[in-house]
Design goal:
The chain has 182 residues and is an alpha+beta fold. Helices cover 27% and strands 34% of the residues. The protein has an 8-stranded mixed sheet, with helices on both faces.
Length: 182
């Protein structure tokens, strides 16, 4: 099982708490953030629901972490498990004011290191919009392979069908292409 608290050189990943709703609102109410999400910018009530959901999730089904820097929450990372824990769908997001500083990569690397260390974990996958260049670039730097694009596959904002890029990473690929950059 992946630990609930993970420390890196700069970050601490911990289980989310209800008080994280304020930061979730700050992050996900930003229009620039929301343009790559399926939902419109978050309302405060939606952020409170998101925090409660993350707190209540069964750790064996979906592991959620609040990413913190010097005690301040700056984002989230999660793995949703399928196939008896052998496959994990990766989700992540860092506050816009912290973009470009390597925090997403550091947090995801820490989570995947622990996940791939588990004997049964075999594959991580991630979905993003093809136009989200930062996310696509991050996944490539982490060693993920672009496995295809599902055209008009997701409904954004209740009105527009958008493409979804699918990336995958197998256990034996982890670290092989990125070791020097970690």
């Amino acid at each position: 099982m992946i630990p609930k608290v993970i420390e890196t050189g700069r970050l601490m990943l911990r289980p989310p708490e209800l008080r994280d709703a304020d930061t979730i609102f700050e992050i996900q109410s930003d229009p620039e953030w929301a343009k790559y999400q399926l939902e419109p910018p978050y309302t405060r009530k939606r952020a409170e629901h998101a925090a409660a959901y993350m707190v209540l999730c069964d750790w064996n089904t979906q592991a959620n972490w609040a990413v913190t820097l010097d005690g301040e929450m700056i984002g989230t990372v999660n793995l949703t498990f399928e196939a008896a824990g052998r496959i994990g769908s990766l989700g992540y997001g860092i506050h816009k004011r912290k973009w470009g500083q390597g925090f997403a990569r550091e947090a995801i690397t820490a989570v995947l290191d622990r996940a791939f260390a588990a004997e049964t974990f075999s594959r991580a996958r991630a979905h993003t919009k093809p136009l989200n260049e930062r996310s696509v670039g991050l996944l490539r730097r982490l060693g993920f392979t672009h496995e295809g694009t599902l055209r008009a596959n997701q409904l954004q904002g209740g009105t527009e069908l958008v493409d979804e890029a699918v990336f995958g990473l197998l256990r034996d690929e982890w670290g092989s292409d990125i070791e020097a950059g970690r």
